[in-house]
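User: Can you predict the 3D structure for this chain?
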Amino acid sequence: MEAIDMEAILGGRRMRRNRRADWSRRLVAENRLSIDDLIWPIFLIEGERQRVPVASMPDVFRFSVDEAVREVEKAAAYGIPAVALFPYTDPALRDPEGSESLNPDNLVCRAARAIKAAVPQIGIVCDVALDPYTSHGHDGLMEGERILNDETVAQLVGQALVQAEAGADVIAPSDMMDGRIGAIRAALDRSGFGDVQIMAYAAKYASAFYGPFRDAIGTSKTLVGDKRTYQMDPANSDEALREVELDLAEGADMVMVKPGMPYLDIVRRVKDRFAVPTFAYQVSGEYAMIRGAAERGWIDGERAMLESLVAFKRAGADGVLTYFAPAVAALLSGR
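Assistant: Here is the predicted structure, written as structure tokens:
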């Protein structure tokens, strides 16, 4: 076999030199995952001393308020900066108008007050949308089969205000109604909540990856139709930039792309275009796929978990909402 002059080909450029040793790989790493990048979504349920497993999300639970406080105390001890609260609303409290969303003593508000009292140093992110509270499972008010944008926005404003009063640090509208960021910002400012931040679900797609989340909040069996008239078409990318631009103009402090891994290109475009705090939501379907494959021995679950989160950092995300947050924090802290 004829000898190959590799030095002539490579000209001394050997990329593998920097990869040879662990210490060298660490020195030249372009992106790093840290505990500071994590927001932990938590599901809530009524009662006391309740930890109810979510069947489609291994090791994820619905917590009663007292248990949620204990879990958040652990999260804070790891250094996780913030948690996001999502309720499983008693079906008896759900109606077509989502009236329970306006109750200042609803499950989310009670949890926010209890967590803020026990763990004041951790950030509380509260979802603003009607789907956990409506009997039809949609994010807005309905007239027949049509989602009413403006009427929904008026109710979302009320929901945001009761959450802010309960101690929410960040209001995170996930409903995808037009104009809701501006309306909520104005209402918060008028009501003395000028320091409450808004994290806009600016580019939220009508995705097939939300199924386990809907199981967790109890809307998978109640949802009438689908959400494609207000959530984004997965085929669209330029539209996401227009959505982000509008939300920023209306007063959003941070923006989010949801889902996460299938939309890393959107994360990158948003960060490059606007250079604002940009987050991604590693949604329930993404979590369930990794965990399900790991449980079957098809992938190394721990490595896949970390690799998936580093991908968000590489794409430009400043942080990630992920159900892996406690496990990742434990690994990164060496506990």
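The longest helix spans residues 149-166. The radius of gyration is 21 Å.
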